[in-house]
């Protein structure tokens, strides 16, 4: 990650030293004596160093596993085993779930940190600090804060809003209620509006800009079914000419060389350090097939494509190979080896995904006969791939892509209509299809858009929110029609309304009994 020129570890240390941890995850705040503000944030580099930390490591508890469990396992795109994730497959998760607790911690910690940084930067300005670099940093924090509250609203619906954790602690009453979902969404939107107003139109690759905010606002408006506003914001991004589709779809997800590409509008930033528990991306082992494991790269395939998503791709869709490894999938650059002569012979000309070859001799045969290709960067540098440190790779996780904005625009034009042949909507929609090697459509329906979104963003943690925003009746229809089983044992589930949103973590309710009560308005 090269968002700034100074050393990231120093920046992270500075941020950590300004924070104290309280029992409740949403009450993380900096020290209140003002010492850090007085002696720091004197240069653009110091300020940028502080905000750069918000792009990486703080997201790890959600990005690593919770994103898969909630965004794709629950949505029917991924199959999983183990002990923590199957409840998201069959809708039996409870408030004690470790994945739910991890997601909660991440979003409320980031929300608290951004609030604290905003206060620190405002205080620095009041002390005579340079607004030229403090104001964009404040806007950057508003973007991150708005984004995490958008996640909070979609994950939990009615949820706490903590805009000033320091003041809350000083008040002596840290029992925060749940606020109604519409107000949580409005809070997120107001933060994104502040980001839009204060961010620059351009910045170094990886930093969010005014158009990142517009794109996230378009996504939020679409979620609220405010189609006119979603159309306006998506159109502003499209007309800016600052983004485009990466023509090699698969390359975006199997090489860090494509980090911060022309399609990426907001990404979780990763870099490899000598510390294997640092800020690397840990999706490589969680998704990679076991027959790709080497001395450099761990692979334990915790998440695999579901049978349902395997059947969702149209014939000829190149996104299939970019998203999944299936029988016959190859990568000639990757040349893994191990102690087996038969394995080494089988892989001599490059990696082969083969479900017939015996296991141990290069074969790969899991429950769904496929593995996820996205964010799997390979067996390590010594084996023809890029550098991998055990569990960690250096590839970024993209949260918002230009393809999303194009499909948001098409759906926003469609709105409540049964179908549309609007030229601009079709242009946006068909750009995504044509990149996938598919024929354009002359008219589109909501089903067309939802299908396109599913295969375009498969395994990117987004499909659950597309299902959820259709409402309970439609969500039930979608989920109960899915095959959530294995190649040998198809499985269908029964879906009930209580699973439309996640429960508040049990540990949080113990500390804050207000969270168990009915939600109240925030505004």
From TrEMBL:
Keyword field: Cell outer membrane, Membrane, Signal
Annotated protein name in UniProt: RagB/SusD family nutrient uptake outer membrane protein
Residue ranges constituting the RagB/SusD domain according to the UniProt record: 279-518
SUPFAM superfamilies to which the protein is assigned, alphabetical: TPR-like
InterPro entries per the UniProt record, alphabetical: SusD_RagB_dom, TPR-like_helical_dom_sf
Major place of residence: membrane
Record organism: Limnovirga soli
Transmembrane portions of the chain: none
Record localization: Cell outer membrane
Protein family per UniProt: Belongs to the SusD family.
Cellular component annotations (GO), alphabetically ordered: cell outer membrane
One Pfam family of this chain: SusD_RagB
């Amino acid at each position: 990650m090269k968002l700034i020129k100074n050393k990231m570890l120093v920046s992270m240390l500075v941020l950590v030293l300004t924070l104290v941890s309280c029992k409740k995850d949403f009450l993380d705040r900096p020290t209140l004596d003002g010492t850090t503000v007085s002696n720091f944030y004197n240069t653009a580099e110091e300020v940028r160093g502080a905000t750069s930390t918000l792009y990486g490591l703080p997201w790890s508890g959600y990005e690593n596993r919770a994103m898969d469990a909630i965004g794709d396992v629950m949505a029917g795109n991924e199959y999983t085993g183990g002990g923590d994730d199957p409840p998201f497959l069959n809708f039996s998760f409870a408030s004690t779930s470790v994945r739910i607790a991890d997601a909660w911690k991440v979003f409320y910690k980031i929300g608290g940190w951004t609030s604290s940084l905003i206060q620190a930067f405002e205080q620095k300005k009041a002390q005579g600090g340079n607004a030229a670099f403090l104001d964009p940093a404040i806007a950057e924090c508003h973007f991150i804060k708005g984004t995490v509250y958008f996640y909070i609203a979609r994950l939990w619906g009615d949820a706490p809003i903590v805009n000033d954790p320091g003041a809350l602690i000083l008040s002596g009453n840290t029992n925060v209620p749940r606020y109604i979902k519409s107000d949580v969404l409005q809070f997120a939107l107001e933060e994104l509006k502040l980001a839009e107003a204060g961010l620059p139109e351009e910045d170094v690759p990886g930093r969010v800009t005014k158009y990142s905010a517009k794109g996230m606002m378009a996504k939020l408006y679409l979620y609220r079914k405010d189609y006119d506003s979603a159309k306006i914001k998506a159109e502003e991004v499209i007309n800016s000419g600052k983004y485009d589709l990466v023509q090699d779809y698969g390359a975006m997800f199997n090489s860090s060389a494509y980090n911060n590409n022309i399609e990426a509008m907001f990404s979780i930033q990763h870099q490899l350090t000598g510390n294997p528990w640092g800020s690397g991306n840990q999706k490589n082992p969680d998704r990679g097939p076991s027959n790709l494991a080497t001395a450099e790269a761990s692979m334990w395939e915790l998440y695999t494509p579901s049978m349902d998503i395997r059947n969702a791709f149209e014939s000829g869709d190149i996104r299939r190979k970019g998203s999944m490894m299936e029988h016959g999938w190859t990568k000639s650059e990757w040349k893994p080896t191990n102690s087996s002569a038969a394995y080494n012979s089988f892989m001599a000309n490059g990696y082969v995904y083969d479900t017939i070859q015996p296991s141990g001799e290069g074969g790969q045969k899991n429950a769904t006969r496929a593995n996820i290709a996205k964010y799997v960067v390979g067996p390590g540098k010594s084996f023809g791939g890029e550098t991998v440190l055990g569990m960690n790779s250096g590839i970024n996780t993209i949260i918002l892509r230009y393809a999303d904005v194009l499909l948001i625009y098409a759906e926003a034009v469609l709105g409540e209509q049964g179908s549309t042949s609007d030229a601009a909507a079709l242009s946006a929609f068909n750009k995504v299809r044509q990149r996938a090697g598919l024929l354009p459509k002359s008219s589109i329906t909501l089903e067309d858009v939802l299908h396109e979104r599913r295969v375009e963003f498969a395994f990117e943690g987004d499909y659950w929110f597309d299902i959820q925003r259709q409402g309970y009746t439609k969500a039930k229809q979608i989920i109960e029609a899915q095959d959530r089983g294995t190649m040998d044992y198809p499985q269908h589930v029964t879906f009930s309304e209580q699973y439309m949103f996640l429960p508040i973590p049990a540990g949080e309710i113990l500390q804050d009994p207000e969270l168990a009560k009915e939600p109240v308005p925030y505004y």
